[in-house]
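User: My instructor asked us to take a sequence, write out its structure as tokens, and then describe one feature of it. I'm not sure where to start. Here is the sequence I was given:
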Amino acid sequence: MAFPGRRRACFALLALAASALAWGQPQVAFSDFEFVPADPDRDPDGLPGSGDEYMDSGGTWNGAAEVTNSSGDTFRFTLSNTAAGQPDPAVDEIAYDLAVSLTLPAGLRLPVSPFPVTVTASGGDPGLGNCTAPAGVTATQSGSTVSFVLPPGTSLPGQGGGAEPCRLRFEFGLTTRDAVPFAPAGAAVLDYTATFNSVPGDPGSAAAVSGQQTVAVRRGDLIVTKSAVPNPADPNGAYAHGGNGPVAGQRLQQRLGRHLRGACPGHARSAFRRGDLEPAAASQRPARQPPCRCRPAAANTPSPISRRARAPTSSSRPKWR
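Assistant: Let's start with the prediction itself. The structure tokens for your sequence are:
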């Protein structure tokens, strides 16, 4: 007695199993997260990847110029497919239709959107030659989400007959915001996600993996004090730094009230050099100038002194004018 319906169902199940076996299952993972500050001063021990590197809150300075809206700080990560793969391209456990995104914490952004992304490839099966880097990759941002725009059909093959897995190394830039609200001080967590299909063009075979990178963000905290000023005026004061990030390029300006005039022009304003306010707990250094005599503009006129201090407390970017 024949059972044609049952036979057809059996064949369908066998075909489905054969198809799943043929396409295999990719083993995709994130690794080798790296952060390189644009300014070497923000890597205190000078050893990349040691964990003491940090971002400035309030934008990005590279030690010589503002790079907030151009290159920012450098970030890198690797995507690899550790599946064994096979010499036959039909069963090499390729991760098809690759898509990569990043969720940013508050206060971080791309320097410019779209931002050019450098991708390099290594490992994989040299016999197949299919571990290649996609060209023309960019990153775009919408809200807190950064999308890495890959060419359609980008794939990540398995290791195959190679000595190492196929790896794609991504390099791009990020910066902290240079306008309020600034990035808060502390640990900034970056969440990466990669999605792919084990069968090309088949959303039903989709899978996703995630990775996480943590970067320190520091803010400066400038404190300026000024003592009572006798006549002749002695414009000596003191400034202290209570933050854990540098506050450089600051300008401290003192203006005389409308009832006073300075006998020595130029002494009412001073600028501190780069490095004058590096992080140092409870450090206080005098900001001294030669005494400058202040004289009333008219006899018997009260002589208040109006003082104003200005310094960016959320950025360490020197701006000389």
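For the description part of your assignment, you could build on this observation: The longest helix spans residues 4-23. Try explaining in your own words what that tells you about the chain.
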